[in-house]
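Protocol check, entry for the methods section draft. Step 1: assemble the input record (protein sequence plus ligand SMILES). Step 2: submit for complex structure prediction. Step 3: store the structure tokens unaltered in the notebook. Ligand used here: magnesium ion. Step 1 record:
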Amino acid sequence: MGFFDKLKAGLEKTRKSFTEKIEQLVIGYATIDDEFLDDLEAVLLSADVGVATTSKLMAEIRKGIKDKLINSPDDLKPFLQEKISAMLVGQSPAEAASHNPPTVILVVGVNGVGKTTTIGKLASYYCENGKKVLLAAGDTFRAAAIDQIEIWGQRTGTEVIKHAEGSDPAAVAFDAVQAAKARKADMVIIDTAGRLHTKSNLMEELKKINRVIAKEIADAPHETLLVLDATTGQNAINQAKLFGDAVKLSGVVLTKLDGTAKGGVVIAINNELGLPVKWVGVGEGVNDLRPFVAADFAAALFADK
Amino acid sequence: MVFESLADKLQQTFKKLRGRGKLSESDVADALKEVRMALLEADVNFKVVKDLIAKIKERAIGQEVLESLTPAQHVIKIVNEELTNLMGGTQSRIAIASRPPTVIMLVGLQGAGKTTTAGKLAHLLKRQGKRPLMVAADIYRPAAIKQLEVLGQQLEIPVFTMGQENPVNIAKKAVDQALMMARDIVIIDTAGRLHINEELMNELKSIKQTVKPHEILLVVDAMTGQDAVNVAESFNNDLGIDGIILTKLDGDARGGAALSIKAVTGQPIKFAGIGEKLDALEPFHPDRMASRILGMGDVLSLIEKA
Ligand SMILES: Nc1nc2c(ncn2[C@@H]2O[C@H](COP(=O)(O)OP(=O)(O)OP(=O)(O)O)[C@@H](O)[C@H]2O)c(=O)[nH]1
Ligand SMILES: Nc1nc2c(ncn2[C@@H]2O[C@H](COP(=O)(O)OP(=O)(O)OP(=O)(O)O)[C@@H](O)[C@H]2O)c(=O)[nH]1
Ligand SMILES: [Mg+2]
Ligand SMILES: [Mg+2]
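Step 3, stored output:
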């Protein structure tokens, strides 16, 4: 399967519910009337696109109708696809690399979104691309979090730097960066404990981890990924805002897109915060991570059966 | 707070109209648009919102509100009452079997908080004088068994494990074991799964058929968006659930998913998770949740006086 097909397959559920509903709408209405527009609004809202972004898209559609760019329900799908693509463009490429290895990647997010699993997948991806990768067991809080990342280390053949449960995560990060330098690793990927963005003490902890890394390598972390669960609703926007206040985020990983959740938050987050999505998770396996390509995402969302 | 309080918004909407004498039906309709926005921003499912607004409208377009000096308060009061009703009105408890052990099974999507909640629930029941046994039936997630074992050690509550054995066998043997050890509560932690994964949903059905749990509780992350109803409907149709545990309410998620799930399954929300620590589980309060969904906090106490 090529990249596009894989992404399409991963988004099958998304595409089905979203596109098919729009298609049903198009078939169900001969002309565009208020009821049609109401139903269309409901489709967008049900995809977690959110009130603000939906209003913006609906305004564009109304303008499109007025400007005679949309003359029948049939014109709607390509119009909307184009507008959504436009909201998602301007993405930077998936991979970050430091001029001077090691490249440091810090992975953050609220509880249970898929940080540790994503790190396992990233380790596999970079190893397959011939990189020497180190992992840091920076979640010293949750029960068996260290065991979990160690299993991912075994699966991917990568070394895991760890301390005891309950120890200072900044110290783990420090050791991992040092080890990466000493062993001439290309990448070091640092796990962190899940934390709600509203807990200021935990956000301070994150800042400290960040500071310690920056002290070791001036321009590090080279990548700080915020992991978001595609099932999350409007709260994802607050998560992105407040994590972004604490540490400089470079991109988003959107996980669990293999469910029926539609990932509409992606559009909202791009639109409201300008934060690029870099990867999508489409399963629990080691290979279930895909680079996010905006045009492909929009196309897969609207692709024909 | 990111969102301006709904009460404030309604107040402003009505204040603008004050000079014009009595309120009309369309004035109320305008105000309900604000309510609709607040509900959608709180992740209440859009279909549930539609029904709810229709119901509220019917009540709000009565004489009482239109001629009231404080129409905003009246509208909010109605909205709040309808939301509270929808969420189950009063608090629901878990059923304790007349013949022990009571078997409780926790199910849900990946990362919702099942394993942590198993520990919290065991802790809560132990404090009520029960003798729980926790069961590690997640054979898929890396270190899931170890996770539950660590929680068991912290709580001094036994954990039944059989490695990567078939989860149906694990559950069956665990209940036998509970009888032998005179444990009166069995809490089964299952692997996270997507509601569309037929194979894994069948596994849950087999566990259900084999151990006949008294309570199947769906664990749901309070941050879940519009998809919550699809998830809840699937779990309820495939398995039949007896209640819901809402987790991660210690954040700023408004938790509209809770309302939606209650509305589509008819099953009550029994507990709320409010932190990562093992004592952070509370009985669920529908009325508090209603004002949270509306984003109003303390405003309600003011309205009570209106
Ligand atoms: N279906 C699916 N499940 C996923 C995906 N990514 C992660 N998961 C699952 O989600 C659950 C939580 O993943 P973790 O990697 O432990 O999440 P985390 O963010 O590290 O969690 P905490 O460290 O507890 O905050 C696990 O059961 C994973 O297998 C995905 O893309 N699709
Ligand atoms: N803040 C907060 N975190 C919670 C709460 N409940 C669970 N968590 C956290 O959420 C994350 C996932 O919890 P788990 O118990 O591992 O979730 P799970 O449903 O068993 O996950 P899988 O087995 O991978 O499907 C962990 O980091 C928990 O500490 C809660 O009420 N509040
Ligand atoms: Mg983790
Ligand atoms: Mg678990």
